[in-house]
Design goal:
Length: about 250
């Protein structure tokens, strides 16, 4: 299995529009973060988790030529806004794209992209096959088993996903013991770490490190990073052994 970090930034990305802070002004490519998303390539299949507003550029930058499915963690704009651009894959592959989400997220997609689901189909619109997923039921994507993991984004339930020895969590503030048990045993874990200051709906830097130590994976990568966290170089030097800052374009093999 190969995992590519397509984006590692928070909802505004990094740099933030009109911001002149040290991180936003940094020339280091590691401090340039698109909205959060990953590509998973396994068993000859390509699966993307979340399709935010940078989806088109992420597909181009990573040279993705084929897409089998999209998994959605939740319905916030920075995770779903790029869905329209799957139509390029529809055209090239001459097939629908499988989309996996719970019923709440599906309803949000139907409202946001009403023209996709309209009875009167406009020529050239994206073609999707929706699949409902639920919190306590593992599901299969092209023969690949995926375990949904429920985390809380303040009061909003959000899905993380475990695929074999890889677990991906974003937009979490709290995770109960039952769902932490679903993560244990993963070799590589990705969790969000927004900033150092407390935040109502995201893990902070210290909270993410504490959770990583509790899970005790071989490697943990931090994502969904804001410009408030600090430069990639400085923060990387503050991290304990086996915990790393993810960055756009990073590839890990499992």
């Amino acid at each position: 299995m190969k995992v590519t970090f397509l984006g590692t930034g928070t909802s505004q990305g990094v740099p933030v529009i009109a911001c002149e802070c040290e991180v936003c002004a940094s020339p280091d490519k590691h401090d340039k973060r698109l909205r959060v998303s990953v590509l998973i390539e396994t068993q000859g299949k390509s699966i993307v988790i979340d399709a935010g507003p940078d989806f088109r550029y992420q597909m181009l930058r990573a040279r993705i030529r084929h897409l089998d499915a999209i998994l959605f963690t939740h319905e916030h704009k920075d995770h779903v806004a790029g869905l329209d651009d799957v139509r390029a894959f529809n055209y090239k592959q001459q097939s629908e794209i499988d989309v996996y989400a719970d019923i709440r997220v599906q309803n949000a997609l139907k409202q946001e992209f009403h023209y996709i689901f309209s009875e009167a189909k406009y020529p050239g619109i994206p073609r999707l096959q929706l699949h409902e997923i639920t919190a306590d039921q593992p599901f299969s994507v092209a023969g690949i088993e995926i375990i949904p993991i429920t985390v809380m984004h303040y009061r909003l339930p959000v899905f993380g996903f475990r695929i074999g020895d890889f677990t991906y969590i974003t937009d979490a503030k709290t995770i109960d013991k039952e769902n932490i048990s679903k993560i244990r045993g993963s070799k590589i874990v990705v969790i969000n770490a927004l900033q150092k200051e407390d935040h109502i709906s995201h893990l902070t830097f210290d909270e993410a490190i504490s959770l990583a130590r509790e899970i005790n994976a071989e490697q943990t990568y931090l994502t969904h990073i804001s410009h408030r966290l600090g430069t990639h170089e400085r923060v990387s030097n503050e991290l304990p052994e086996s915990i790393y800052l993810a960055y756009d374009g990073l590839k890990v093999q499992i």
